[in-house]
């Protein structure tokens, strides 16, 4: 008796079709960074978790491709660092990270121009913070805003199954898992400052911040007030008050060294202005040092408040990457099975 022909919808055929559509086994995360001034813990602690504990790939990019420098005050050995700055393990971690192949192979972010990375190619994009005034050009970076405006749509939690099951090898725009965006402390500001154009097709978004309908946290005012007070005692002036001249003056001057006539603004207040309903969307977190990170319900977006939240944020980003990938795998498997049944 001749051997029965293998069914077209056999597990083997389904597996081969699914495998052709799956993303790379190891997730890739991009740290989109400023040229200088980042809070080192918010960079290193997240990098250590994602690379050493998860075993995932982390790449780095700045707008110009220069190697970013951390906030030197928080790295310099002394009494101030021991109280307010990076711990020894973070300082050592920075130099380990800065010597890595991925860090030295610094990418450039911003648009589809040749030689610049496309945020959409990464499972997640992470925006670390920093309060030093050298960070201000990063907050207002138009190339960064343009990249975030495109990327945030990929982070929207999918409510409908994917509509394309074309294999990656033959499709210029293959289906892919939803993406994840993470931001901590002042790293939320570029998201808040990124806006949909006034003529955006969806009037619900037109002219608004891309954060307008998303739940978020950032550095709360009570924390920034404490930091500012410590800075005053230490003789650091407005070091802990990034927008001591206000957002408008900072934008106009590129560094917040304005004429002093503008009103100072707190980071929390700036972010709240970007939200449709700040009373329900803004998540202040606990009044204390306990770790806190918040994940939005409609977007794969995770935010946190200050360096002490870095690990909690890292775990949140990792969880959202897993959720997005698993949903995609389930959708692909179901779609391939249906397509084979109907063929």
Write up this protein.
Helices cover 38% and strands 10% of the residues. The protein has 343 residues and is of the alpha/beta class. The strands form 2 sheets. The protein has a 7-stranded mixed β-sheet, sandwiched between helices. A two-stranded parallel ribbon has the order 2-4. Helix 2 crosses helix 13 (310-342). The two termini are 27 Å apart. Mean pLDDT is 85; it is low at 1-12, 162-173 and 256-261.
Query: What structural class is derived from the secondary structure elements?
Result: alpha/beta
Largest sheet: 7 strands, mixed
- Biggest sheet, strands in spatial order? 5-3-1-6-7-9-8
Total DSSP E strands: 9
Q: Give me the Rg, rounded.
A: 22 Å
- The H/E string reads HEEHEEHHHEEHHEHHHHHEEH
Percent range for β-strand residues:
5-15%
The averaged pLDDT comes out at 85
**Helix count, DSSP H or I runs of 4 or more residues:** 13
Measured as a percent range, the helix fraction is 25-40%
- Overall morphology: globular
Distance between the termini: 27 Å
Low-confidence stretches: 1-12, 162-173, 256-261
């Amino acid at each position: 008796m001749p051997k029965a022909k293998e069914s077209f919808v056999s597990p083997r055929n389904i597996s081969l079709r699914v495998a052709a559509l799956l993303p790379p086994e190891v997730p890739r995360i991009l740290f989109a960074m400023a040229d200088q001034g980042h809070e080192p813990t918010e960079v290193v602690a997240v990098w250590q978790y994602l690379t050493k504990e998860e075993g995932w790939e982390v790449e780095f990019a700045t707008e110009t491709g220069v190697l970013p420098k951390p906030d030197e005050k928080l790295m310099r050995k002394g009494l101030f660092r021991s109280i307010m700055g990076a711990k020894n393990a973070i300082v050592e971690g920075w130099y380990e990270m800065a010597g890595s192949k991925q860090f030295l192979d610094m990418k450039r972010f911003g648009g589809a121009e040749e030689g610049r990375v496309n945020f959409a190619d990464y499972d997640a994009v992470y925006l670390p913070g920093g309060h030093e005034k050298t960070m201000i050009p990063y907050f207002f970076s138009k190339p960064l805003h343009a990249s975030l405006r495109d990327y945030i749509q990929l982070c929207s939690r999918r409510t409908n199954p994917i509509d394309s099951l074309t294999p990656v090898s033959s499709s210029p725009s293959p289906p892919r898992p939803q993406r994840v965006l993470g931001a901590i402390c002042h790293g939320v500001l570029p998201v808040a400052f990124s806006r949909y154009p006034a003529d955006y097709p969806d009037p619900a978004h037109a002219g608004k911040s891309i954060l307008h309908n998303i739940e978020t946290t950032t550095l709360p005012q009570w924390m920034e007030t404490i930091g500012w007070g410590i800075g005053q005692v230490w003789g650091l002036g407005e070091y802990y008050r990034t927008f001591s001249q206000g957002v408008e003056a900072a934008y106009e001057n590129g560094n917040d060294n304005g004429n002093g006539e503008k009103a100072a603004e707190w980071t929390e207040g700036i972010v709240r202005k970007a939200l449709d309903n700040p009373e329900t969307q803004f998540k202040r977190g606990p009044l204390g040092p306990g770790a806190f990170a918040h994940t939005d319900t409609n977007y794969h977006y995770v935010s946190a408040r200050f360096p002490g939240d870095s690990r909690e944020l890292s775990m949140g980003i990792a969880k959202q990457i897993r959720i997005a990938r698993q949903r995609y795998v389930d959708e692909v498997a179901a779609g391939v099975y249906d397509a084979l049944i109907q063929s």
